[in-house]
Amino acid sequence: MNKIALVTGATSGIGQATARILAKNNYKIILCGRRKDRLEELKNELSEFTEAYTLSFDVRDKKAVFESIDSLPEAFSKIDVLINNAGNAHGLDSIQNGDLEDWDAMIDINVKGLLYVSKAIIPKMIEQKSGHIINIGSIAGKEVYPNGNVYCASKHAVDALNQAMRMDLNPYGIRVGAIHPGMVETEFSEVRFKGDIERAANVYKGIEALQPEDIADIIHFVVSRPYHVNIADLIVYPTAQASATILKRNN
Ligand code: NDP
Ligand code: 8X3
């Protein structure tokens, strides 16, 4: 029987690439995100390979999270793999100049949203006595960098929750692991800089950044290990990057 994967943030970047690779490898996919048009487009694209189901909700809205996941039809209700990927940075300001709405967005989406989705799915995995959760953290969850403050805090929380989930779910045979990417070229910087495309492009200037498919490939590798293997924590950089702040740029 085909396994079922639920991917949050499937409308773009890492989540979209992950949905594609898992679909091509015989997973049935539950595609989540706010942008319905993109979800439907991706569902149509993937129909060549697999069955997909779309759930459009904002991870900040806990009622919508629980209602959406509860509404899954029988054919999609046994979730084998959860990819907790939805998230973004909002702003890159010093702590003294930070925007409160940006702070709320990062804490509410990257931390609380991940918790709500996990809470809606974990009881099903406990009942099944199986499941695999992949939390997408960041190098920002391993290091703090100037002006990264609240985004780094949100991703440090993801790192902590990843460890906590692994401990608490150990008795139930549920695998939990995190992937912490460095610089990946997606819509991430456009969101961080609120649509300032030029500023976003500068982030990747002179760097061969990771592509979303690079991370998706690794996610597929992680979830396709034999059951007794749990890849718990991975940092993935582009070769040009050595830490959150050390980058070799070609000018
Ligand atoms: P993108 O901006 O390309 O994708 C972000 C995804 O998250 C979108 O599908 C978006 O969907 C979804 N999302 C954002 N806010 C919400 C919300 N409130 N409710 C539901 N879904 C939401 O960025 P990436 O693919 O790069 O980011 C994916 C993950 O990878 C994030 O957790 C990010 O922090 C992490 N990451 C990214 C790195 C990078 O350099 N790009 C490096 C390290 C980690 P929609 O807007 O349709 O709701
Ligand atoms: C995204 C990577 O370095 O911009 O999580 O924080 S970074």
Explain this structure to me?
- This protein is α/β, with parallel strands linked by helices and 251 residues long.
- It has a single domain (4-236), classed as Rossmann fold (3-Layer(aba) Sandwich).
- Helix content is 42%, strand content 14%.
- It is built from eight helices and seven strands.
- The protein has a seven-stranded parallel sheet, sandwiched between helices.
- α1 packs across α8 (212-223).
- The longest helix has 29 residues, at 100-128.
- Belongs to the short-chain dehydrogenases/reductases (SDR) family.
- One of its GO terms (molecular function) is oxidoreductase activity, acting on the CH-OH group of donors, NAD or NADP as acceptor.
What is the topological layout?
Blueprint: E1 4-7, H1 13-24, E2 28-33, H2 36-46, E3 52-56, H3 62-70, E4 81-84, H4 100-128, E5 132-136, H5 149-169, E6 175-181, H6 188-192, H7 197-203, H8 212-223, E7 233-236
Parallel strand pairs: 1-2, 1-4, 2-3, 4-5, 5-6, 6-7
Helix pairs in contact: 1-8, 3-4, 4-5
The structure holds NADPH dihydro-nicotinamide-adenine-dinucleotide phosphate and 2-hydroxyethylsulfonic acid (8X3).
Number of strands: 7
Mean pLDDT, rounded to whole units? Answer: 98
Distance between the termini: 51 Å
Evaluate the radius of gyration. 17 Å
Query: CATH superfamily, please?
Result: NAD(P)-binding Rossmann-like Domain
Structural class: alpha/beta
CATH topology: Rossmann fold
**CATH architecture type:** 3-Layer(aba) Sandwich
Helical stretch tally: 8
Low-confidence stretches: none
Q: Name the CATH class.
A: Alpha Beta
Order of helices and strands: EHEHEHEHEHEHHHE
Envelope shape: globular
The main sheet orders its strands as: 3-2-1-4-5-6-7
Strand content: 5-15%
What small-molecule ligands were found?
A: NADPH dihydro-nicotinamide-adenine-dinucleotide phosphate, 2-hydroxyethylsulfonic acid
Helix content: 40-55%
Number of structural units classed as domains: 1
Give the biggest sheet. 7 strands, parallel
